[in-house]
## 1
Amino acid sequence: MTGPVLAPGVVQAVQVLTVLVAAPWVTGVIARVEARLQGRRGPRILQPYYDLGKLFGKEALAPRGSSWLFLAAPIIAFACYLTVPMLIPVLTSYGLPLGYLGDLLGGGFILALAAFVVAVAAADSGGPYAQMGSSRATTFGAITEPVVLFVVFTVALITGTDLPYALAETVRSSAGQIVRPAHLLAATALFLVILAETGRIPVENHGGTNEFGMIEHARTLEHSGPYFALLSWGSWMKQLILYVILINVFLAPWGLAPTGTPVGVLIAIGALLGKCVVLGCVVAVIDNSFAKLRLFKITEFVAAAFLLAVLAVFTLYLGGG
Amino acid sequence: MRPPAPGVFDGTANTVAVLVLLIEFGMLRAALLRSQIRLYAAQSLVVSVLAGIVAAEQHVPELYVLAVLSFALKVVIVPWVVLRLVRQAHAEIAGSASLNVASAVLVSIVVAAFGFFAVGALHIQSTALPTTALAISVAIVLVAFVLMVLRNDVVSQAVGFFSLENGVSLASLVVAAGLPLILEVAFLFDLLVAVVVFAVLMRVHHDQRASLSTSDLTELRG
Amino acid sequence: MTVVLILLTTLGAAAALLSLALPTWAAQAVTVTSGVVCLGLSFVLVVPTSHAPVQAGFLRADAVSTVFLIATAFLYAAAAVYSIGYLRHHAGHGRYLQRFYLGLNAFGWSMLCAPLVDGLALLWVAIEITTVVSALLVAIDRTKSSAEAAWKYVLIASAGLGIGLFATIVLYYAGSQVYGTSYDLTLSQMIAAGHRLPVTPVRLAFVLAVLGYGTKVGLVPVHTWLPDAHSEAPTPISAMLSGSLLVVSFYAVLRYVQITSPTLGAGFDRTILIVFGVLSLLVAGLSLLRQRDVKRLLAYSSVEHMGILCLGVGFGAPIALAGVLLHVLAHAAAKGNAFFAAGVLLRKFGTKDIRQIRGGLDVLPWTGPLLLCAVLALSALPPFGIFRSEFQIVAGGLGDGKTTFAAILVVLVTVAFLGMAVSFTRVLFISAPRTPEAVVTRGEPSAWMVAPMVVGLIALVVLGVHPPDALTHLLSQGVIELGSGGS
């Protein structure tokens, strides 16, 4: 394709912007699909933007006795979520200059840092539900961590490196790469982890208002106004980032821009949004087909994901995976 | 070290084999006896399909016959027999296990890993299916043992044994795809007899104890 | 000879079907006829197989299989006769007897098929059929404990045989390196393959086979089903389980030894068998010291004798192998007698509990001495067959430089003797207390139950004092076959 080529820096900025801007939209689409599946009309797709606008206009309150961290946490988390899109193939199939700043583990660390500061802030608030959510989220985060590690091992064994770009490249290279069990197992394990991390059924009821059943959502109960807006926006971005990793690294790394032409980038944005909507629909269907697990049954769910990831590594070790 | 990627056929076969193993783990998790039997049927279905795949790929027409026979026996007849028994023993719909699911899965992962690496160390090559499938079949056999050990009811134990046989069938597809049809049929016939006897003994057990549980089978010891 | 092979593998099945259709007395007659004819046919095979294997399609008999055939057919016939007396006063007539004779014949038939089929896959099928048939027979009394024993038995044995199937498949794979991907897994072919088989799969197959079939043989630590099944089955069935079922499974192990030893060399197989043998002897010997149930006691004695067989094959010297084959025969006769006598005690005293059975010699004029002889025979005292066979096994071990294990064998056999002797001395020699309610009248319950024991005793003495020449030839031919792989 001929034509003007965008500077890598610009493409990089567009990647971040895409995630920033599209995240509420994807959330809106999922909410809409979910409502339709339940026979409701559902909110507008753009409702999350309105919510954000409304929240930014409100005043912010902090609980008495909370420290500076309580207010800094949403900003730090938001910054983390803005950093990760630089490391993963959101729009391009080739690595951008900052793309080699960190590998899959690096991205994972940054996401974990975000989760950590939010958890600390929730604990700092002194609110009982926020603290409960924070402790639960940290516990389950600790047991999903090994799963993620094994997924990364799988990637490393398949490609010899753990750069997300390299795996996407390998997957594109032949059909044999897609049907190999290690790849499918790792992708499935990652999908299960994403369900847990984004607070979806069967781990958590997404739209629930019962504080006792909450995990992720309880952490932000004490925040308000712009800070709450940043936290919500951040968690939507986290969802989109995880979707992007699953789609553009594991499942369907097609439609990415091979060079930096504007047309290619635009196509890539469209393709990404399309794929995310499809994945979102799948998640919505799962949301509507299963019941939430009881809290102590969540370990079984994570054990299943762990099993898949471990099997992926096993099959690889025998050379046939 | 970066292992070479398998071809499309090998990859598919391996994936199907992994599916069999995953269903075995599913049985470990399933609490309801009915769902356990259905999982067994699904597992047998996958094994039969794999037999069909090998038949097509390796041009072994006998395996088609085997696939059809094993479908009829293991997907239709065996689950039907066992389901009927469960339905007649209406008291219980769920079995009990001596470990919770997450621990059972972890134990099985360790056991399966042992099987995997034991077979990996043997360097057995086969033309019909990749070696990974053999390792997986050994893992299935071992996990079936875990299932039989951990469950405390006759139905789960019997289903565990049947799924053990599925694992061996899978292994025979890998290393003995050319096994004469007459022998395969003999194996299947034998399984049929075993199923009937298992069903009779389950019935006897249920008549004697008015329960499917085996946890009170403690009279004979020493 | 073809006719003999076909008859041996069909008579039992025919008798099973007939006994389903005929009235009880006719079913008994058919069963006894079938058993005796099968025994006669096995004797017919002795001379031809002493020279060369006899082959007929899927069927094949050589000296080794003839030895196991005789042991099996003898107990089949003996159990058939014994059952007439044993079940005479049984409460549940009619359907129970019908089922019993159907099962007895099917059991005998399947065990006769196992040494005759030509091929490891068919051998597996035959042994699996013996499992399921005998499991039904164990459960036939429909009591709580028999249902428990049958369930344990069928589950453990089937799982073991699942491993045996795996062994078969792995060996098939090994053979396919020699014969191409599609071939019949016949014995002659596999034996002929010799050292051309690849080492790793053969080694795997051997270990799996010993573990898998060893479950049916009752080797420690996979023997756990055995005492339960033996003690809960009807006595004639216990005798068949112990005397023939275990050795038929041992026959499978022996075939794997025969096929794999050229490839693996002498050391590997033998070490494994010696380990299993010593373990079995040890556990069985210690368990014998604390048994209270007559039939469980005899069951552990079976574990002990299977351990001796394993050790004998593990020693591997020709004289030890001849001892092993002789031991199979002598053990069948002695253990059959012991179980039959235990059944008489059970009928007479109404219990299997050693503490409640007293004064056996006073009360039972025939069975008492016969039981005493059987126990002495099982403890390897002269002039009985087991003395000769164990002597040969120990001599083989000493001659082959395995002095330690031969010594262990002797010590543990002595421990087992102690256990048996203590229990049976109480049963036989201590007189019953003279309380009015505990009076048991003197006399045998049935002559049908004594007759097979007398025959068994004669066989034991003959085997011990002077085995017939035909048998000696058969055994030495069997040793040549087992050693033909070159050790």
## 2
Amino acid sequence: MIELVDINRHFKNGDEENHILKDININIKEGEFIAIMGPSGSGKSTLINILGFIDRGYEGAYLFNKENYKKSSDNELAEIRNKTVGFVFQNFKLIQNNTILENVSIPLVYAGLGSQARKEKVINTLHDVGLYDKENLVPNKLSGGQQQRVAIARAIINNPKFIIADEPTGALDSKTSEDIINLFMKLNKEHRTTMILVTHDRKVADKADRIIHILDGRVQREEVVE
Amino acid sequence: MKNLSNIIAISFKSILKNKRRNIFTMIGIIIGIAAVITIMSLGNGFKQTASEQFEDTGAGKDSATVNYMTSSGEGAKDNPFSQQDLDIAKQVNGVTDAKIKESDDQGYSAKMTNAQKKGDVSILKKKEMTSPEKGKGFNEDDNELNKKVVTVDDKIAKDVFNNDAIGKTLYIDDQGFEVVGIANDAMNPSAVNMPANTFDRYMGQLTQDFPSLQLSLADGADKKEVADKVAKELNKKGSGAGDGNYSYTDMEEFMKNINKVFDGITYFVSAVAGISLFIAGIGVMNVMYISVTERTEEIAIRRAFGAKARDIEIQFLVESVVLCVIGGIIGLIIGILVASLVDAVTPDYIKSAVSLSSVLIAVGVSTLIGIVFGWIPARSAAKKELIDIIK
């Protein structure tokens, strides 16, 4: 489904030019659970920005279902993000003064769904991630684990082709981390949603089908987990 | 666009989520719009009263008024508009009819002939006088029945009746009238109110101090030219030609000038209010900029989950427009209330008239401010590159 061919990414920083990603070649099949590991500054975030159609300033080819979206306009990319990608962030990134219902609705709003249909779908999805009767609360009334569940509900609500989770357990304790990872695995098995999970944590990465190690902007090695 | 309504709903919710700041932002708009609406309402009201009054004095369409002033400036002793004079006027080309014009708030002078005191009184014709300061006054029935009753003012009550006037008889031109109440009239000293029919029956020969002649004109006649000609004829042959002067005052011209002055005042106040609205607009822009900066993360999240740049722009633009329109509507209401209040506490001739145009101006101007001053921050919000703000 996802094919990265010789991806390079440079960032200009004043007169200097930093070479962040170097000749990345990755293949991800539909339904796979991928973990990306690597130390800080190794280029993981840059990589997932490219995968998530946020960054277009790379060289090389990123083929999604054999199609290249590098030349697509900003508006087209917004639509592609809306339909194909779900993001989960380390610090949850929920809008603090909006209710859970409004937060989870965001992808549906831009897909053009009416408010009644949105509400129904949000409540069902919240049930899928194990949250009940929380839709009218604001995020800071919930625990970290619950907030991350809200974020996951938001990521999956529009049935995306794949989910990008950037250190989803980084701000959680180990027990909650395990719950969240189990939730990811459940979604991966039941809905066959492709997962791309960035993590520092070996225990988390071990749950994936395959681990991609990144160091200094290069794919160091790939490891299939048995 | 299907999700436009979604985006507008989001904007409304965002405004409600930051009530206090938004209310303070609105105050500028509210004050500006309220000032414009107040002045416009009062200006329109004054213009209406003025034109009604001029209509009343015979300055209406197809009619003109010729006045008579004695050289001494005092009231005319004899009627300067006799039947003969009316005929003279009617013969002038372009005049279809001529009659003596009576004015409601001008008295008819007459002699008081009580034994205790003699003097001049000014009789005012009234259909009814049901709430004098003292006594029971007279009503329409008394008027129909030509009852010989009057009310007098404080001065007559004191001079003639030693403050004990009710029930006594006042003689005017040797005819007795029962005093049924005490009522004062600021415009006419020694005022006597009398039922109009009674007056016509017993005092019909009296004339007003400053009578005028009302001309009805033929269609298409030049008002000024015809009326001037009538005045000229009367100055030659009229019965009062020796003692004074007949003249035509162009009320229309006069009214136009008054309206011009009022328009000038309205424009001046509007200009001042316009400056305050401009400053309010800058305030809106400032707050919207702060809002955009504070909500960078929200913008990033929305963009990451599929919002287009235009969706973000519309969201912030709608927020600023809604903010301004709400302010405009509150300002409109306050303006109308203030104008009504001024109407209520000031004399009759200051009135408030709210026109549709003032409502349109309030809503239109505030929408315009919202668009103009909201557009720049909304644009900057939409232009943020997702990769720069998703950290």
